[in-house]
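Appendix C reproduces, verbatim, an entry submitted by the partner laboratory led by Prof. M.T., so that reviewers can inspect both the input and the predicted structure.
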Amino acid sequence: MTSTASAVEVNDSPPKAVQPWVNSPLSYEYDYSLGWSFFYNPEMVMNGADVHFYDTFPFTENCGSFGNIPPLHNPPYVCTLNFSGTANPVAVVGRTASSFTFKSLDGHVEGAGRYIRFTFYQTSTFELRMKVEGWGPWNVAAWASINSGTVNGFWTTYANNLKSWISNGNL
C-alpha cells in the first residue's frame, strides 16, 4: 500500500461534495445488472466487492482491501491499477456502505483529476445493480476510451465478474 501526501492534494473535496456532471465536459453513466437475489443486498455486494477486489476488478492492482478507509481519509488511500503495460495511479477518495469512488492521479493514462464512482443498489424486484459514473477534465485519452466503448467494456467485465461471484454464492 502506498499513501503519500505529495501524490494527492490534501485539501481534496470529499466525494459527496463532488457533483458529477457539473462543469464536467466529459462524463458518462452506465448501469449493469448483477442478477436477482433475496440473499444479497447492496451493502453485502460492496463488502464482497472490496474483499474480492483483486479477483473481480478488470485490472491487476495493488489496492488490496480499502473497506476500513474513512470517507474523508487524508491523505487518500493511493494504489495503482495496471492494464496492458500501463500503471494507472488512483486515490480511493470515498467509500460508503454501498459505493466507492476513485480519483485518477498524475501518471494515469486518462490524466489526473477524473473521478469514477461505483454504486451498488437493489430494485424493488430484488435485482442487484451497479451504476458507474465517470467525470472530470476533458483529454484525448479519456475521450477515446469512452467513445470507443473501452470504458463500457471494462465495467461490463467488472459487472459480469461480480454477477458470477454473486450467483455462485462466493461474494
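Residues 5-167 form a domain with the Alpha-D-Glucose-1,6-Bisphosphate; Chain A, domain 4 fold (CATH 3.30.530.20). Additional entries are available on request from the coordinating office.
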